[in-house]
Design goal:
8 strands; alpha+beta; about 260 residues; 8-stranded antiparallel β-sheet
Length: about 260
């Protein structure tokens, strides 16, 4: 035909047609069902990993909380024991009386009331203070224990230690409060006279008698789902000091 272009004949290699007819197309992508199965398996594995990791984190948090509480409790008990073991006998300018209900425990005179704290112990005059170059006071200090409402919104009360270092001040000084333990329901002090434990002690009534031991009970608030209260933490400290007796004054008074 006029105007047509004649192409050279293209020869197919021998057997090419037969080979092409036998080759089938191989799929190169996943089907939707395979993708759904893979995603489901990945989700199950991820959920299992999350549960294991979440359980490990919860266990770590509980362990850390238990350790922290144990450390704070040990520190509070150690301070209590140190204060009671270093009691000084009443008498003199720096050695005040031991009264389970001090005469200053009223809303006007007791400094703990102004600090929104409830007194649970008498004023202990103890030689447990640390003397160094930055504190110009002696080793004898006045210590009292009290409960106050915690500032971190935890249950129960916070046990605090009120310390007064300057015992020769002309004015009633505000004690320094040292937080010790949280989650406390109550604290009780008892005094052993040799035959029984007494809840009240007053060395101004019997100046020549001093307790042989002091017992402290710390009652904690039940934690979590625990219904029954825990057994109170009990500390018994022997008192080795005895009241001072002015033998010279007694003999001179008797001779008069």
């Amino acid at each position: 035909m006029k105007g047509s272009v004649c192409h050279p004949a293209i020869r197919m290699p021998r057997g090419a047609g037969a080979a092409r007819s036998t080759v089938t197309a191989v799929p190169v992508a996943f089907t939707l069902l395979e993708l759904l199965i893979a995603v489901a398996i990945f989700a199950v594995v991820l959920l299992a990993m999350h549960m294991v990791f979440f359980g490990a984190v919860q266990l770590r948090n509980r362990t850390a909380s238990t350790v922290d509480e144990a450390v704070l409790l040990d520190q509070a008990v150690a301070l209590l024991r140190r204060d009671l073991q270093n009691l000084v006998p009443p008498g003199g300018t720096l050695f005040g009386p031991l009264q389970s209900v001090p005469q200053t425990t009223n809303a006007v005179m007791d400094p703990l009331v102004s600090l929104n704290a409830r007194r649970v112990s008498p004023d202990f005059y103890t030689a447990s203070a640390v003397v160094d170059a930055w504190r110009p006071w002696g080793e004898v200090q006045k210590v009292a224990y009290a409960l106050r409402v915690p500032t971190n919104r935890t249950e129960g009360f916070e046990l605090v230690r009120a310390v007064t270092r300057n015992l020769v001040s002309l004015y009633t000084e505000t004690p320094e409060l040292q937080p010790l333990l949280s989650g406390v329901q109550d604290v009780r002090f008892e005094f052993f006279d040799g035959s029984q434990w007494l809840a009240v002690w007053d060395s101004t009534v019997h100046p020549l008698v001093f307790p042989l031991a002091i017992r402290v009970q710390i009652i904690r608030v039940p934690r979590g789902a625990q219904v029954a209260a825990e057994a109170p933490i009990e500390l018994v400290v022997p008192v080795s000091v005895r009241p001072l007796t002015n033998v010279a004054g007694l003999s001179s008074g008797g001779g008069a």
